[in-house]
Design goal:
single chain, 25 residues, mainly beta, elongated
Length: 25
């Protein structure tokens, strides 16, 4: 996933954050 990081929320939602890109998985 390169330089990105993943935020994990309580309901199982993961938000992948990259420089200038946000992906809701």
């Amino acid at each position: 996933e390169g330089q990105g990081f993943t935020l994990i929320f309580g309901k199982g939602t993961r938000l992948l954050v990259k420089p200038s890109k946000w992906h809701i998985i």
